[in-house]
Specification:
OB fold (Dihydrolipoamide Acetyltransferase, E2P); Rossmann fold; 5-stranded mixed β-sheet; 9 helices
Length: about 300
Amino acid sequence: MADAALQIRTGQSLNSGESRLDLLLFDLTDDKLFGINVFRVSEALPCPHLSQLPSPSPYVVGVVYVRGMNVPVIDLAKAIGCRNRQPMDKSSIIVCESGDRSYGFLVRQVKQIVSLSWSEVSPPPKALAKTCSISFIAHTDDNQFIQVVDVEHIFDIIDPPPPSHYDECDWVSKNELSGMHVLVVEDSKIAMNHLTCFLDYTGAVCTSVENGQEALKIIKEWGSSGEGMLERLSVIISDVEMPIMDGLTLAKEVRKDHRMDNVSVCLHSTLGNLLNQRTADEIQVDAVIHKGDYPNLLNAMRLKNNRAQAAH
């Protein structure tokens, strides 16, 4: 399923003016419809027998053996605060991947795949953004309300990353990128906090926005301000999955603006392993890096920094 969706998305991204969001739809209760980006889905199947293993998380209900792996299964309804979950023997499991982590989501019923424009997708209300397990909200053509699950948020609830102590890392030096101006485009508050913490340690000067449209707006403002802000911009680090304007569309728009020919564009996404080199070449990005892979992100920024110093 994920491979087929990748082929569809790649073709749309490269051959049309607009990339798409392909969602696997499912429900958790009788009156709510949810979705997950099909890129994240490796398997969808009727709920088999679950093996029981000790778990520190109250949301993990068992383990399922899928494609040669033992995958923990999360009660998704419980994790995001829904009630009245369907009995387990009538449920389905959606196996999702992010980097080296795989989890199964226990859901009520898997429905179908729909394809939407990113411009049709909006973020959740700002009052809920910090704690909400929903990343986007969308409507189908027949006006069905879809809540798109924030898989990264769920994974962090179940398996939070350890705190980063960069002083103890031998692959990064404090303030080694001092003064480098970076535009960060990221809609996830959790991912934004992790990334800006890392960039602050390197000494980079960060400006952050929540989607591609906001990024283009601030680029336009810098270009017309006469203060040299656009000329000082070195790197754009952008997520791919974002409402209103996604990262692929942003990258293509940036490359149309020759004032930014010397700006490096890095896609920093949990879809990093799925976005192949052809995609990177066609939309002219400098790197496709899995979200949280800061050593490789740092290497891409070092290359830009070294080129800039050589030019002077």
